[in-house]
Design brief:
Layout (H helix, E strand, L loop, with lengths): L3 H5 L24 E9 L3 E9 L2 E7 L10 E10 L8 E3 L7 E13 L5 H5 L1 E8 L3 E8 L10 E6 L13 H4 L10 H6 L40 E2 L11 E3 L8 E5 L4 E7 L4 E4 L11 H7 L7 E9 L8 H10 L5 E11 L2 E2 L5 H13 L7 E3 L3 E2 L2 H10 L4 E6 L16 E5 L22 H6 L8 E4 L2 E4 L4 E3 L4 E2 H19 L4 E5 L9 E3 L11 E3 L10 E3 L3 H9 L2 E6 L12 E8 L5 H16 L6 E4 L5 E6 L6 H18 L4 E2 L11 E4 L22 E2 L16 E2 L2 H8 L17 H7 L2
Parallel strand pairs: 11-21, 16-18, 34-35
Antiparallel strand pairs: 1-2, 1-6, 2-3, 3-4, 4-9, 5-6, 6-7, 7-8, 8-9, 10-17, 12-19, 12-20, 13-14, 13-15, 15-16, 16-17, 20-21, 22-23, 24-25, 26-27, 26-30, 28-29, 31-33, 31-35, 32-33, 36-37
Helix pairs in contact: 6-14, 10-11, 12-13
Length: 759
């Protein structure tokens, strides 16, 4: 087995794929063999199965993808061996290169041969056990025989009958699991991302695993006299799961108990060796790929090996855990604010501490954590000895979830169920509806009424008709966004969640509606007029007679908004004026539209220049994502001028921005002028023109939402994008509406402002 064919097919000066020596790789550690499946949109969409063996990745292309149904015999065409590092590749292969297109790391994990290797591989009759995030259990790889397979490259990939098998009609794994196992992104998001180059995001075998690879321990290792602790003994690292605390009505009394504030978040064991970091949940599940950024932070712990027990969370206002912010961080893969609060250490530097009293363990843990920088993202969770009632009362005043109490001499062992009294107990201060995911005391992370929690409970049985806030929905389970599995019902629930925020921007205005009755992959059209349609909660918007006889669409409240969801309206475009005087606009819109070759940082720079230009004439602009690649800047104004004045002024703003750097910004709509420039589009400021509303969805892959931002949120290093799933989480996570004072802003387009920006 060699990598010569792999290298021959690729120009590594052009492709971001990992290069490789012609020699096979060498494993730097013993242990499980790496496994990966990549979703690859090249000439045709297919899946690539990769199994580590003898220093390379044995590879097969699955034209139709895998199936969990043993009745399905999926074609697997053997391809050239790949280097081990390829198991972590996610990004773009340039057009014109071999396999050019988008590559998603769809699944990853480990595999184990169930038949002798390499003989079963040479014989073309392999049995394998996959331990992936999506593909699990036993499988067969069988080389086809007979005519048409003289090359021996055609195999069959077949699921064995076991507890992981499922009928295709009940569970299609490629439909139910469309996102990256590494970044949770869609194919569309990967293809359009600013960071769409190969990353050491995850690899199998010897490849550097960004989320698992252990950095060298600190030069000055924490001074831990572990061997001298009572009950300490030299041992290999044990396989542990977090100890659960027993429920109690109140903390125990007495000075032989210590008390910790109950931190809500994800309860995890961080296991660190010289070569890797893993995050293990309450049931032994692997959270490492869900929180890769946190694993990277924990790789800096100054010990050669350790098991840390703690809680991952995001701290919000007032120093309280912000669970929606944590869920949002996990969904977006932005873990800058995720912190690991460590409160126990049952193992360190080759020494097992499960029999060591907790006070001794915590003292050693504190020494370890204090040797790290204050901003390392790993903190020590302190305690108070005795005074249980006072601690409990104070925790309640602070709004904490509760108190976790532990006997000062307790080891890291669970009661054996034979009459042992629990040495860890949890006392809950406040009731909280949660699901069953982990935290310090064993309760949940996600509010039970959160969008993702509702989805996790399973889809509602298909209904032909559904009533929601007195609005009748037909085919509520029709899928509008296939990749996200967003249904008409989910769209309605999203709009209910954001109704108070979106309605002020769309009620009592003429609307243009972009409808996708069968979803985004089917026929779609703009609807501006009611025509002969008679629908409850939607009415005519009065317009001047010279606009024609056809009345525009308008709504007045929540029922109207939900009716738009029933009509599969995926984009809501209001006028820039209200219906009581459509000739006097009350807002200006500047659309920052990136041309070819423009990155996110350049868009942000253009937005800042536009803001400064507006501020120079005493106008404040509000920024939002377009729901696509660009940004919108919206300026509320008093109704004083007609459309001609407004358009002229906005054109002058655009030209002033372009003059700041004509190589980076343009006010020229021509395609040739937009190459490597941001087009400052002012043409939405005419009578009858529209712009997508804040909080409206877009009819594009990803179920993206046009999202209001604060100016401080604009980060040149990372594009901001939210969809119908993550936007509600964002709203739960932030303290206030970014546009809270939008309608309170009293500002006018003055004659001085017009003169100052006139050419």
């Amino acid at each position: 087995m060699s990598l010569e064919e792999y290298r021959r097919k690729r120009d590594f000066e052009r492709t971001p794929e990992p290069a490789a020596d012609s020699k096979r790789g060498k494993r730097k550690r013993s242990g499980p063999l790496g496994y990966a499946t990549q979703k690859h949109s090249a000439t045709r969409l297919h899946y690539d199965l990769r199994l580590e063996h003898d220093g390379v990745l044995l590879s097969w292309a699955l034209p139709k993808g895998p199936s969990m149904d043993p009745r399905e015999k999926k074609l697997a065409v053997q391809t050239e061996d790949h280097p081990l590092a390829y198991g972590g590749f996610e990004g773009l292969i340039p057009a014109g290169e071999y396999g050019g297109g988008t590559v998603m790391l769809w699944d990853r994990g480990e595999w184990e041969p169930l038949s002798p290797m390499p003989q079963s591989y040479l014989d073309g009759d392999m049995k394998v056990l996959l331990r992936g995030m999506k593909l699990r259990g036993a499988w067969a790889l069988v080389r086809m025989k007979g005519k048409g397979n003289e090359s021996g490259k055609n195999w069959l990939f077949i699921k064995e009958r076991d507890e992981f098998a499922a009928p295709e009609e009940a569970y299609s794994v490629i439909d139910e699991e469309p996102f990256s196992a590494l970044t949770a992104r869609s194919m569309h998001e990967i293809s359009t991302a600013a960071d769409n180059v190969w990353r050491d995001g995850q690899a199998v075998g010897e490849a550097p695993l960004m989320w698992r690879k252990r950095r060298s321990p600190a030069t000055v290792e924490a001074q831990l006299d572990i061997e001298a602790l009572p009950g300490a003994r030299a041992a290999d690292m044990p396989k542990l799961t977090p100890i659960r605390a027993a429920p109690a009505d109140a903390p125990p009394t007495g000075d032989d108990w210590l008390h910790e504030i109950w931190i809500r978040g994800v309860r995890l064991l961080a296991t660190l060796t010289d070569t890797e970091v893993r995050l293990i949940g309450m049931e032994g599940e692997d959270w490492t790929t869900t929180l890769p950024g946190l694993a990277r932070k924990l790789s800096n712990v100054p010990a050669h090996s350790a098991i840390l027990d703690g809680v991952a969370t995001v701290m919000g206002a007032g120093g309280k855990p912000n669970l929606p912010a944590l869920e949002l961080a996990m969904r977006l893969g932005d873990e800058r604010d995720v912190v690991f609060h460590a409160f126990d250490m049952p193992y360190a530097n080759g020494i097992e501490l499960r029999a060591t009293p907790i006070l001794e363990r915590k003292t050693a843990l504190k020494t370890l954590i204090e040797a790290m920088p204050a901003d390392a993202g790993v903190t020590y969770s302190d305690h108070i000895i005795g005074h249980g009632a006072e601690v409990f009362a104070q925790a309640g005043k602070l709004g904490a979830a509760g108190v976790v109490s532990k006997r000062f001499d307790s080891g890291y062992t669970a009661p054996n169920g034979k009459g042992d009294q629990p040495t860890w107990v949890e006392s809950q201060c406040v009731a909280a509806e949660t699901n069953k995911t982990a935290n310090q005391g064993g309760a949940g992370i996600l509010p039970a009424n959160s969008h993702l929690a509702r989805r996790a409970q399973g889809a509602t049985a298909a209904e032909a008709v559904w009533f929601f806030h007195d609005v009748r929905f037909t085919n509520p389970d029709r899928i509008l966004y296939p990749e996200q599995r967003v249904t008409k019902r989910a769209l309605a629930e999203y709009y209910e969640r954001v109704a108070d925020l979106i309605l002020p921007h769309i009620i009592k205005r003429p609307l243009s509606l972009y409808r996708c009755p069968q979803g985004i992959e089917h026929e779609a059209f703009f609807q501006k007029h009611l025509g002969e349609m008679s629908t409850p909660h939607i009415r005519e918007a009065p317009v001047r007679k010279d606009e024609g006889r056809e009345p525009y669409v308008a709504i007045d409240g929540l029922e109207g908004l939900l009716t738009l969801a029933q009509l599969s309206v995926l984009e809501i475009h209001p006028w820039g004026s209200r219906e009581d005087n459509v000739d006097k606009p009350d807002l200006l819109v500047l659309d920052l539209d990136p041309g070819p070759g423009v990155d996110w940082a350049q868009i942000v720079e253009c937005a800042i220049v536009t803001r400064e230009t507006l501020e120079s004439v005493k106008l404040r602009g509000f920024v939002k994502t377009s729901g696509g690649k660009g940004l919108h800047i919206v300026v509320p104004i008093t109704r004083r001028h007609g459309w001609d004045v407004i358009k002229t002024f906005c054109a002058n703003v655009a030209k002033a921005v372009a003059k700041r750097d004509e190589k980076r910004y343009t006010a020229n709509i021509a395609k040739w002028a937009r190459e490597k420039r941001v087009f400052v589009d002012y043409l939405r400021n005419v009578r009858g023109a529209t712009c997508v509303a804040p909080y409206s969805t877009r009819a594009r892959p990803g179920a993206m939402v046009s999202t209001p931002l604060t100016w401080d949120e604009l980060d040149a290093a990372r594009p901001l994008a939210f969809n119908v799933e993550t936007l509600p989480l964002r709203l739960d996570a932030i303290d206030a509406d970014p546009w809270a004072d939008f309608f309170d802003r009293k500002q006018s387009l003055t004659a001085d402002a017009q003169r100052k920006l006139a050419p």
